Amino acid sequence: MAVAKTIEIISSSTEGMEAAIRDGIAKASETIKGIEGAWVKGTKLVVRDNKVVEWRVMLKITFVVS
Which CATH number fits the domain that encloses residue 58? Predict the structure, then answer.
């Protein structure tokens, strides 16, 4: 029987939403093993002088508990 757990993290990037997702999962995988998947729970943009300067994503990451 497998048991899975989910955690929520917020990740950001000045490059774009895809980079924020990739960087968030990479950082989480430094301490969490067995990541199975992730959901983008929400997004936020930081705007300065009418330009998008940062993308933020709220991720729900699922991993198998050993």
Answer: 3.30.1660.10
- The boundaries of the domain holding residue 57 are 3-65
- Domain total in the chain: 1
Which alpha helices (DSSP H) does the chain contain, by range? 17-28
pLDDT tens digits, one per residue of 38-63: 999 999 999 999 999 999 999 999 99
DSSP H helical ranges for 1-57 = 17-28
Give the three-state DSSP class for 66: coil
What is the reported pTM? 0.88
Q: For residue 66, what pLDDT band results from cuts at 50, 70 and 90?
A: confident
Q: Specify whether the CB–CB gap between 12 and 56 falls below 8 A.
A: yes
Q: 8: which 2 tokens?
A: 């929520």
If DSSP codes are grouped into helix, strand and coil, which group holds residue 50? coil
